[in-house]
């Protein structure tokens, strides 16, 4: 009896040991996959990163030179995107979190946001082409691309802002309302300042999301090649993600430009992950303060 | 006295205007979704003057530039479903097990490192993952399995799995985390081991959340464009083996749109393909929404 129960206990322990091993292994596989990607991109890309690479336009039908127009283009597009998305996103989140009552309308709005977040990026691209480029006659331009990316980042901003608003304790609101402030005064003077860091984090994440997207700008903003920098919002631009795609699949000499492809990928990753790390660290510090 | 009540009224009116303004802005997401639907259908429907819906969806040949052209997207749909299916075989176990690890067994110190790994995985631009699959994984697969091309269904599925793991993992983790501790404590107090508690109490209690996470992860995989454009191989055929090249719907749209004559049949056919893709993701998202609402986790009552 005693022995038997011991062996059952042992088996239960063993099973737990094995299963927890699987857990650990899965987490490790993810880490290894990420490290592998980093390793190859950095090991093969870092030599391409020179001052010339970062400050010159492409030369000799994009087999030499740098990627300055792509960097500028990506910065324009992603900044444009969050300029569109932040006001709309923050206002939507304020309504959803501060004003709306639980009910059918709220449920429908949330369903809309969730579904918008799930729309494939290529569908955003076609929508941008049909609506902004053709129907609103913006042409292939920074404006059309930024608006398309803005729509795409909207759910990111709404989600982050809502989370930030939720984390503001209700006692703040009650204190302000109790002092005779109106609802809007409370939101504007009390809730928003308290939620601002969280909203900023969301903005940074939105920026990084917009900077890395390719499919939405393919037909709305991205140019195969432009030697000059954009002068107005109606210009086509080169962009980092699209440049990688073009060099890797459609360039004149795909093998000969590998180092440029690695270099461009590395710059894009540094940009996107830099923004993300900023957001992660900032958020971690906020959580510690609370 | 009278004056204050007057200003109270105007205050009330201002408040009302502000509230209505915010309400209108919050409709922007739905309005955009509606616009997307309208414009996709507007540009996509004209193709059905040329081919019937059945021939379009179930037609076996996609030769849009031949004379006469064939607009059958069946191989593209099958391609999309195959890469999504194979990728979920990889991403579901990895995503859910990592979530369990993060939520239940990892020490705070390890968690602090694993969590950013998952977040960074989600942040990597898809074009970079596609590029990696093209220049590193493809030659590797070609050599190891001795196949004609490393750009195929399997490679695309691997890369897609990498992209959907973060979605599955972080949403599952939220679901697991929100299981009330009382349930866990009760199970442990009855003498169950930690693993038994996870398998018999925590997993059943968070199942709806995990399924939602899986569906959203698959939805992300089916709609992902750059990866399948760069590494799936691009052949519009129904695959027979894991190492056949495929041409999922997003890849076809992205590759051909630039060359399709404006508002020609090919252009309309690509928009109609996007409609089909959009409907697939809509279905996935509505299913996820339905499950997460119908089987909402309400603590002890889920068991």
Which key terms come to mind for this protein?
heterodimer, A: 290 residues, MetI-like fold, 11 helices, B: 303 residues, mainly alpha, 2 domains, 2 strands, globular
Verbal overview:
The complex is a heterodimer of chains A (290) and B (303). By secondary structure, chain A is mainly α. Chain A has two domains: 2-47; 51-289, MetI-like (MetI-like fold, Orthogonal Bundle), CATH 1.10.3720.10. Chain A has eleven helices and two strands. Chain A has a two-stranded antiparallel ribbon with strand order 1-2. In chain A, α1 packs across α11 (258-289), α3 packs antiparallel against α8 and α7 packs antiparallel against α8. Chain B is mainly α. Chain B folds into two domains: 2-49; 53-302, MetI-like fold (Orthogonal Bundle). Helices cover 74% and strands 1% of the residues of chain B. Chain B has twelve helices and two strands; from the N terminus they run αααββααααααααα. Chain B has a two-stranded antiparallel sheet. Chain B starts with a helix and ends in a 9-residue tail after the last helix. Chains A and B meet through α1, α3, α4, α5 and α6 of A and α1, α2, α4, α5 and α6 of B.
